[in-house]
Amino acid sequence: PFQYYYPFDIAKPYWIFLEESMISGTIVVARKVYDEVMKGTDDLRKWMKGLSINCLDHRPKNVLNNYKLVLNHIQTETTCYTNKALTEWSQNNTADPWLVAIAMTYGYTMVTLEIPNKMLGTNPCNRAKIPDVCAHFNVPCINLFEMLRKLKFTF
C-alpha cells in the first residue's frame, strides 16, 4: 500500500515521521515484519534497511505462549474459521499471529490496513483477519490513519 497511499517521492514527511517514531520507540517493528520486508527488492526495503532500529523478537517464552493461544483460537473457533485459516496463520513465514502475540505480550496497539470481517461467526472464514483476532484477545487495533491522528502527524 505504501506505493499508492504514501509513495516516497511525494510523502517524504510521512517517512521522516515514521523513522523518527521508530527510533524513539513510539512505533515498534517486529523482527518477522522486518525480515519479510528485507526479502523484497523495492523502495520500502531500501528505506528500512537504512534505519537504525531495534526489532522485537518473537522468540521470548511469553510471546511463544501467546502465539499458541492465537493459533488455538483460530483452530477451535470452528464457527469463525476453517482449517485453511489455521493453515495460513500456522505458516512460519506468516507474521500476523506473531504480531498479535507480541501486542498481547507487551500491551501494544496493533496497526493494520485490514478491516474486520462483519460476517464473522455466520460462516467459517478461510482467512483470519488481524482486527478480529485482536478483538477476541482485547488487543487494541487501529488502522494506519487512526495511528497517524493519535500521534498527531501532519504534512
Quick structural summary:
With 155 residues, the chain is mostly helical. The chain is built from nine helices and four strands, in the order ααβααβαααβαβα.
| Overall average residue pLDDT | 94
What shape does the CA trace take?
A: globular
What are the secondary-structure elements, in order, as H or E?
A: HHEHHEHHHEHEH
Number of strands: 4
> How much is the radius of gyration in Å?
16 Å
Strand order of the largest sheet: 1-2
Overall helicity: 40-55%
Return the structural class. Answer: mainly alpha
- Low-pLDDT windows of residues: none
Q: Give a short account of the largest sheet.
A: 2 strands, parallel
Specify the number of helices: 9
> What's the N-to-C terminus distance?
18 Å
State which percent range the strand residues make up.
5-15%
